[in-house]
Amino acid sequence: MALKLEHVTYIYGADTQLPVRALDDVCLEIPDGQFIGLIGHTGSGKSTLVQHLNGLIEPTSGKITWDGRDIWEKGFSRKELRSKVGLVFQYPEHQLFEADVFADVCFGPRNLGLPEEEVKRRARRALELVGLPETLYGQSPFELSGGQKRRAAIAGVLAMEPRILVLDEPTAGLDPKGRDEILGQVTELKREMGISVVLVSHSMEDVANYVERIVVMSQGKVLFDDRPREVFSHKQELERVGLAVPQVTDILHRLKKAGFDVDVSATTIPEARDTILQAMGRTGCG
Amino acid sequence: MLRDITLGQYYQTDSLLHRLDSRVKLTATLLFIISLFLVNNLWGYLMAAVFLAVCIRLSHVPFRYMVRGMRAILFLLLFALVFNLFLTPGTPVLRLWKLTVTKEGIRMAAQIAVRLILLIIGSSLMTLTTTPNHLTDGLESLMKPLKKMRVPVHEVAMMMSIALRFIPILMEETDKIMKAQIARGADFESGNLLQRAKAMVPLLVPLFIAAFRRANDLALAMEARCYRGGEGRTKMKPLIYQRRDYAAYAVLLLYFAAVIVIGRILPI
Q1: How far is A155 from chain B (nearest CA, A)?
Q2: Same domain, yes or no, for B3 and B118?
Q3: Which chain A residue lies closest to B179 (C-alpha atoms)?
Q4: Nearest C-alpha of chain A: how many angstroms from B186?
Q5: What is the pLDDT of residue B4?
Q6: A275: domain range?
Q7: Residue B202: inside a domain, yes or no?
Q8: Residue ranges in chain A modelled with pLDDT below 50
Q9: Is residue A275 part of a domain?
Q10: One domain, residues B86 and B165
């Protein structure tokens, strides 16, 4: 069950004076059970790309296949695809509309035409997964706090039980605590349900600790597609397209420049600590 | 999706029409619309159409782009067409079940259709070539005489410009919410009228909330910048007539006089 993009190109406003090539020959494969970070500067084509993943936008040229079938061929049910590829937009709390939280989460599974008990079971499970307490189920979604609203909205997509969950900037506008909570829960989710997660972000720092693969977008093209440590080793190229490597990686690069024999591919704080201690031991400073 | 609706939007390019003073364009649009309703023969409409075609050519806005925006009002057009076709009394030409098509009805329907199409293309040509800011400035300046009658001209102009400015923003918002709900399995395109109306709830509720939120933010931002209405307010870029604007007025008057003479005197 893999989603595959082959040479996908998308042009906004092709017949106007200002056509914008938002995606340029993008090739990408999303297999089962992978945690992927999709990173790029504002306007790099990330959001356009994710809207291709569940058939909201038709590519100008190129092919997108789900399980080997072209999603734009005649007779392919994109409605069904959308239940397999769950897309959580930026600021998803702006899509809440029902009278209470539980009803809002039921909206997705109900649209799939499931029996009522199954709808309720899925909604309950999704709300549990995002960690909203049962006391909030009956409340109006507009009375929740910002972080709670967002979790309710994410639950609304999760309740469709997708195979791939795409989150577009899920931490935008949240404080560091809210950010860590959401990202922690997403990791938990991925492990528990065995689904693939695509995390869209403009911040390396956010994704470095969570994902196993990073896709870097720049000007509509895929610049890198590799494991985090490999991607972060291209510090100069990343900075040229307006992205920063995580702070630990940055520090290690600087230490290396200053003559310390550290391993610059460390991406997390514990890894960095180990390699720094090792280097200090070797040079005899520690 | 909704990006296709071009009605009331500004099309960025450089042309003679874009550079004209907004007061000229407003007056021109008004006179053009009046001329459409004064004319009552084929030649007059032909002249109006040619005049409009020349303006479109001068504007450098692709005709295809303009027509795409018309799809939104197709329904209105059909409505007017059908009603005039069947409900105008006169000499019968064709009988369909209980409805009668009359000679006068055909003429009336054709006239209404032509008027509506020219009217909408004509007025959208103005918004396509004039930025909302210029449009408001022009309106404010043209309505100045009404100030003596205690009409809050500046405020009206400001409200209009805000409304215009928010069309594309709300469109974008609608597009976004629509996509978000489609991603959750919503279906806006199939079903009968009642089902479709019900399907709009998940779109309209968030849209209204977004509109109120934006209005609130805007009011706050305006107050934070000490906005308090038009009294004693000066312009950074005041409107000044250039030579081309006077020339445009001359052409406009010429057109208006000619179209009325031809459009009302000649038979057919």
Answers
A1: 11
A2: yes
A3: A56
A4: 6
A5: 54
A6: 246-286
A7: yes
A8: 286
A9: yes
A10: no
Q: Is residue B267 pLDDT above 80, yes or no?
A: no
DSSP output for B109-144: HHHHHHHHHHHHHHHHHHHHHS-HHHHHHHHHHHTG
Residue A271 maps to a domain: yes
Contact A142 B209 (CB under 8 A): yes
Beta strands at A196-201 and A61-66: parallel, antiparallel or unpaired: unpaired
The domain total for chain B is 2
CA dist B180 and B214 (Å) reads: 19
Cβ proximity of A87 and A56 under 8 Å:
yes
In this predicted structure, what is the pLDDT of residue A137? 93
The reply to whether B19 and B121 lie within a common domain is: yes
Q: Which residues of A touch B (CB under 8 A)?
A: 13, 15-18, 51, 54, 56, 79, 82-83, 86-87, 89, 92, 94-97, 107-108, 110-112, 142, 156-157, 160
CB pair distance less than 8 Å for A94 and B210: yes
Look at residue A7 and tell me if it is in a domain: no
- One domain for residues B19 and B122: yes
Residue B10 lies in a domain: yes
Domain encompassing residue B61: 1-130+239-268
Query: A166: Cβ–Cβ under 8 A, 6 or more apart, which residues?
Result: A50, A53, A54, A85, A86, A87, A88, A197, A198, A200
Q: Does residue B201 belong to the interface with chain A, where contact is any CB pair within 8 Å? A: yes
Find the mean pLDDT for residues B113-141: 88
**Residue B245 within a domain:** yes
Nearest to A17 among B13, B176, B182 (CB): B13
Question: Global pTM?
Answer: 0.75
Chain-chain contact of B186 with A111 (C-beta, under 8 angstroms) = yes
pLDDT tens digits, one per residue of B65-91: 888 777 767 888 888 888 888 877 777
Rank B177-181, B259-263, B264-268 by mean pLDDT and report only the highest: B177-181
Instruction: Say if CB A59 and CB A65 are below 8 A apart.
Output: no
Q: What is the pLDDT of residue A269?
A: 82
- Are B192 and B91 members of one domain? no
Residues B225, B247 within the same domain: no
Query: How many structural domains compose chain A?
Result: 1
Residues B3 and B25: their CA atoms lie apart, in Å, by 25
Identify the three-state secondary structure at position A92. Answer: helix
Inter-chain touch B64–A15, beta carbons under 8 Å:
yes
Say which of A15, A54, A157 has its CB closest to residue B65: A15
User: Are residues B251 and B193 part of one domain?
Assistant: no
A97 to B202: CB separation less than 8 angstroms, yes or no: yes
- In whole angstroms, give the CA distance from residue A38 to residue A213: 9
* Inside any domain, residue B78: yes
- pLDDT at position A286, please? 45
- Residues in A closer than 8 angstroms to B179, CB to CB, are 51, 56, 89
Q: Classify residue A268: in a domain, yes or no.
A: yes
